[in-house]
Amino acid sequence: MVEGALGYKKDGFPAMKLKVGYGVERDVEYVKAIREAIGYDLKLIIDANRAYTVAEAIRLARAVEGYKISWFESPLPPEDIDGLLELKQKSPIPIAGGKDEFTRYGFRDLIARRAVDIIEPNLGAAGGFTEMMKILTLATAWNIQLTPYVRNTNVGVAASLQFFATLPPFPDRRYPGENYFEVDRSPHPFRERVTQEKFSIEDGHIAIPQSPGLGITLDWDIIKKYKVAF
Questions:
Q1: At the N or C end, where does the chain have fewer CB atoms within 10 A?
Q2: Is residue 216 in a domain?
């Protein structure tokens, strides 16, 4: 785990996400080990993948406060909006959620009730470009940050990059904060081979395709190889 984190730092990534949800005490040990290895120049995000109760999530958020965590992602089951509200009120760390929601109606209560500090819609699941723009409109109306969640093939990555390029500054001020585009670095042959283009990541930055459309070309030989039905 530490070795991987040091590799991301060497490659110039400005932020990294750490999987947590193994129990509060063990998670604190992991956060401590990673932060001590990479220092405080890189932003560190923790993601529990819905693993905690409200009480546990509050304990973890308070326990890792000193390690400069940028946000605590998916701490609770997505249906527990009341729990998210309680956690958000008691957590010293911003709370992120929404990667399990679909369409603007799924995000309505999260946004209107201010249950999270950051929403993370997945373009491929939330309804595509049109619906994502409607979700973005809701978020900006309530002054809530939107950071796309990206766990797709290269097609989804390309689409998410195009959407990411349209995001307005947040907060809306002269010197806004930085937003980050999530890139899964774990091996995934189908994700990476489904398009003829390969995304180049240099010094922690990924280029947005400039060709027409999404800027990609499908590799139909690979798609046929993996197809279940057509």
A1: C
A2: no
**What domain count does the chain have?**
1
Query: What range does the domain containing 57 cover?
Result: 2-185
pTM over 0.70: yes
The pairing of beta strand 43-47 with beta strand 69-73 = parallel
How far apart (Å, rounded) are the C-alpha atoms in residues 150 and 145? 16
Considering the domain boundaries, does residue 107 fall inside one? yes
Q: Could you tell me if residue 223 is inside a domain?
A: no
Tokens 């819609």 belong to 121
Report how far apart, in Å, the C-alpha atoms of 94 and of each of 81, 90, 111, 171 are.
15, 10, 14, 15
List strands edge to edge, sheet with 43-47: 15-19, 43-47, 69-73, 95-97, 118-119, 145-146
What's the pLDDT tens digit per position in 150-209? Answer: 988 899 999 999 999 999 988 888 888 888 888 888 878 888 899 998 888 888 888 888
Residues 6+ apart with CB under 8 A from 22: 30, 51
Check which CATH number belongs to the domain holding 123 and give it: 3.20.20.120
In a domain, 209, yes or no: no
Q: Could you write out the three-class secondary structure of 64-79?
A: CHHHCEEEEECCCCCC
